[in-house]
Every structure is written in C-alpha cells, then in structure tokens.
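Entry for 2-phosphoglycolic acid complex. Fields follow.
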Amino acid sequence: MRKPLIAGNWKMNGLRASLLELSGMARAFSPALRAKADMLICPPTTLLFPAAASALGSGIAIGAQDCHAKESGAHTGDLSAAMLFDAGASAVIVGHSERRTDHGETDADVKAKAEAVIAQGMLAIICVGETKAQREAGKALAVVAKQVRGSMPANANAAQVVIAYEPVWAIGTGLTPTIHDIAEIHADIRKNLARLLGKDAAGKIRILYGGSVKPSNAKEILALTDVDGALVGGASLKAADFMAIVEAA
Ligand code: PGA
C-alpha cells in the first residue's frame, strides 16, 4: 500500500556535468520500475532548474535539500519554498543532520520549514536520527521520538510528509545499524506517528532509512515492513549505484 520512495541527496556535490548521471538514471527508470517505486533526486540548488528540465517526462521527481521557513523577505542567501517550487522542485529535505549540526537547526526550525514546504504543496522529507553517543547510551528510540514530535508540521498530512530515519553515525561512514535495530526504530516511529496523527495517517506515511545505503545492503533493509524506501547520499551520485538501489526496492 505504501509505494517505496528512493530519494537521492547529492548534498554539496555536482556541477552541470553531473546532470549526465541524471540522464542515465532517467533512461534506466523504466515503466516497470516506475510502477513499483517512486524516485527523487535532490541536487544542489544551482542545478534544480536544469535537473527538473532534464528529468521532465522521466518520472523522476526533483527536490531541494533545505528551505527557509518564511515566504519572502530580507534573508540574504536564503531560498523560500515558493522559489524552490518555481525552479522545479516538488519535494524538500528538511532537518538533515548536517543542517542540524552545521547550522544549529532545532526541531522548531525544522517544523517551521516543513510547514512552509507543505503550504507550498510540496513533499516534506523530515530527517531524524540519533548520534553514536545517544545510541550507545540506549537513548536512540527516545531521541528519535522527541525529534519526530518536535519536527512534525502542524499542517501535516500523510500525502505530503515523509520521515527519513538517518542515524548520524551511519551517514557517510559505511556503518549501518543491525537489521533488528532498523526494524525496531522504524516500528517505533510508526507508533509515534499514530499517536500524533492517528493510525490511518501513520499507516500511509512513508518512513525511509538513510545512512550508508548501497547496492549491497539495500535489499535487506528495504525488505523490512516499516521501511518504505531510502534516502541515499554517496551512492546517489552515480546512476549505476543508485539504479541498483531502485531495483532492490
Ligand atoms: P550516505 O548519506 O548515503 O552517504 O550515508 C545519507 C544521507 O545523508 O542522506
């Protein structure tokens, strides 16, 4: 019932020449694959417009990696949800751990950003995840539950919200939690979504796993009941790697 979403986060990587990888993905995203999985690429903002043009008709959606919570105004260097939408984005990642760390974003900031994304009619991909110290202290479930609660937009609806569980210590490290740990935390996130939004909505919201997803581990992770896709960093930069993950879904 929940169609898997395989999302690629290019982070601060990619020049115009990288759009060749996107064209490769578009060619490989066959009607048979499209029927089984949704695909999203979030390039750096400089590439949003050409990426959206290049992905046109391919079934690949294009998204942004962050946005400002306000609609417009005196915020030098920032971009609003309306601007990202205008450039061709249909989704925005909010609250990625790199933004929470590098820019001090709080749950309240993430919530406000997600609200702006939803108000613009786009999909908000809300990232949560514990640090290594929190995991080792046995606090992963509690930390993630608090982030989900604190970052949940007031205008949340099942069609426009995706949660991405990304343990900070698994991002770009090659490390992943055990399959048991991923299953446990995803089930717990779904339980908390039910508390916040009701059982029906919680059953429809996609919960992605992110953190060192690659072709070799995708199948096992994506087979879990409450894992509805993946948010992929490094392995989303190359068409061959990324499409192998889409195939696994
Ligand atoms: P990674 O990044 O796949 O390179 O670990 C995941 C992410 O940060 O979304």
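NOTE: The chain has one domain: 5-248.
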